[in-house]
Amino acid sequence: MKTKEELNELDRKYTLHPFTQLKKALEEGPRFIVEGNKTRVKDIDGNEYLDAFSSMWNVSIGHGQKPVIDAIKTALPRYQRDIDEDHYGAGFAFRFGDPNEPIVQRNDAMLSKRLNKDPGRLRAVGGTEEIMALLADFHAAGVHKFVLRPIATDSQDLMHQTQRLIDEVLPEVKALNPATTGTERATARGG
To answer: Could you state, in order of their start, the residue ranges of all structural domains in the chain?
Structure first.
């Protein structure tokens, strides 16, 4: 495992922390969380905290990938922990539109620079079919919960993208739910 100083240097070089006073973060360094139990997490110095964010920011870099889930499952016995199968989650950006739109290009450039890899599998751009395909890929890897973030040019576009997700994608997702009855499934598809 890297030392705290090595981790601090990597963090300063590659990570932007949302809702963080950047000057203070650069002076003091981040809190590296090394373990967690239910609603509590512990940092590299042994301090314990209430996890009020529930790791909401790390999903933007592609967590929910099968290798990550497999590694977590492999490590669980070592910590005498278990996680329900339906608890693994992933988040990704989406846009109803074209991959060549400037806003998508800007999003891709930021992710590519941050991750040093092609962001194409970390976002869905196109229509319902493309969004559902990425959801299906994550689901096949064992992911059951999702946070989808619109790629938008402004607040009006954000609302438009979100409404399309509600109107066009959520009925398809609901139709995939095995707990949904046949009547509900037909209604969700408009049948």
So the answer is: 1-54, 56-188
